[in-house]
């Protein structure tokens, strides 16, 4: 999957001087789009600040000291904001950005996409601007799905070749540490020849749920840490035990876990963020000359349903669509006769019950 909004942004606003932003300013932007996750937003803001400060300096300024980049690993349940954080960061910094699903990656020579396909996606997102590509951001989703079998991560033999595990990790290692990659343009793009991209200054942010890693942390610590706090204590040793090679772990030095969202967080996502879902529906109804309002009880019911289904913030869109589908069907016809439409709890329950059990 490729995010292609960068060129649109370039046409619609003045470029942001990345090297003039402070970590505080970066976090203020992330606050508009992601609720909670304060520690993660601070860490990501510092990582982005240091990364773009590093690549904006001439070599002579650092007196020959090579400042290595620090890629980021975000760990948390589905819908906690991992992808949204990376997207919001790229939007602020005005750099090319793409999202790649790690589950689609295989070793070179096997059916599927190899790791170098990631850079081809970023090049496409940059509208084939090589210099811009080399300063972009890549988000690799579901990175936990390429964990290799336990007997393989320690170098022992395996009866079956794991084409989506250790081999893919080694391919990613080259990209993360910095190498020259032949980025194959899409079939629709006419190219005079190979396009080579240096990945040294591309910031990689990886994310995954890492289901099943909590017991590994518990076993290592040997203490009675609350289950919900276990991911806070994740270490490189836990990642290796989970199935990642030490070399790849070393190229992801910044490791942060995201907190599961509670009901209050869900309500904020629905109503308070920069592009909150409820704001979108209100605007849609305004276009049909209708004033749309939601009662507090209705919003609470929607948040509770998302919590009970363990859908996270990402699942709120499905909840909203289930609630609003009938209303959106009727709104254009009623705009002339009716000026207000109130969504209350009974209405929410009735609509949700068509798809899911009662709240």
From TrEMBL:
Annotated stretches, region: Disordered: 1-20
Record keywords, A-Z: ATP-binding, Chaperone, Hydrolase, Nucleotide-binding, Protease
Span of domain AAA+ ATPase: 68-232
Domain Clp ATPase C-terminal: 261-348
Transmembrane segments: none
InterPro entries: AAA+_ATPase (IPR003593), ATP-dep_Clp_protease_ClpX (IPR050052), ATPase_AAA_core (IPR003959), Clp_ATPase_C (IPR019489), Clp_protease_ATP-bd_su_ClpX (IPR004487), P-loop_NTPase (IPR027417), Sigma_54_int_dom_ATP-bd_1 (IPR025662)
PROSITE patterns: SIGMA54_INTERACT_1
One GO molecular-function entry: ATP-dependent protein folding chaperone
GO biological process, one term: proteolysis involved in protein catabolic process
UniProt keyword annotation of Amino-acid biosynthesis present: no
A Pfam family of this chain: ClpB_D2-small
The organism's place on the tree of life at top rank: Bacteria
Protein name: ATP-dependent Clp protease ATP-binding subunit ClpX
Record gene name: clpX
């Amino acid at each position: 999957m490729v995010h292609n909004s960068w060129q649109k942004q370039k046409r619609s606003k003045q470029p942001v001087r990345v090297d003039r932003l402070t970590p505080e300013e970066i976090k203020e932007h992330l606050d508009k789009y992601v609720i909670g996750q304060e520690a993660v937003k601070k860490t990501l803001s510092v990582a982005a600040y240091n990364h773009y400060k590093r690549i904006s300096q001439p070599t002579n300024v650092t007196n020959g000291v090579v400042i290595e980049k620090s890629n980021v690993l975000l760990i948390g349940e589905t819908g906690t904001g991992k992808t949204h954080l990376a997207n919001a960061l790229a939007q602020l910094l005005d750099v090319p950005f793409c999202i790649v699903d790690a589950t689609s990656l295989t070793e070179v020579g096997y059916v599927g996409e190899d790791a170098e396909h990631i850079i081809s996606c970023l090049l496409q997102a940059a509208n084939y601007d090589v210099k811009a590509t080399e300063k972009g951001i890549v988000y690799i989703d579901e990175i936990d799905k390429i964990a290799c079998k336990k007997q393989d991560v320690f170098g022992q033999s395996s009866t079956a070749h794991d084409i989506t595990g250790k081999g893919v990790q080694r391919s990613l290692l080259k990209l993360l540490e910095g190498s020259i990659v032949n980025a194959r343009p899409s079939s629709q793009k006419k190219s005079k020849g190979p396009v080579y991209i240096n990945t040294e200054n591309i910031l990689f942010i990886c994310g995954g749920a890492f289901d099943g890693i909590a017991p590994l942390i518990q076993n290592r610590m040997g203490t009675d840490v609350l289950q919900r706090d276990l991911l806070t204590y994740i270490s490189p040793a836990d990642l290796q035990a989970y199935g990642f090679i030490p070399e790849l772990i070393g190229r992801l030095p910044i490791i942060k876990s995201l907190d599961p969202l509670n009901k209050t967080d869900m309500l904020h996502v629905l109503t308070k963020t920069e592009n909150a879902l409820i704001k979108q529906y209100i605007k849609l109804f305004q276009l049909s000359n209708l004033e749309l309002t939601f009662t507090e009880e209705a919003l609470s019911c929607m948040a509770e349903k998302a919590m009970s289904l363990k859908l996270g913030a990402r699942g709120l869109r499905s909840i909203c669509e289930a609630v609003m589908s009938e209303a959106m069907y009727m709104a254009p016809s009623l705009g002339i006769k009716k000026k207000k439409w109130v969504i209350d709890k009974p209405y929410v329950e009735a609509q949700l019950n068509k798809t899911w059990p009662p709240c």
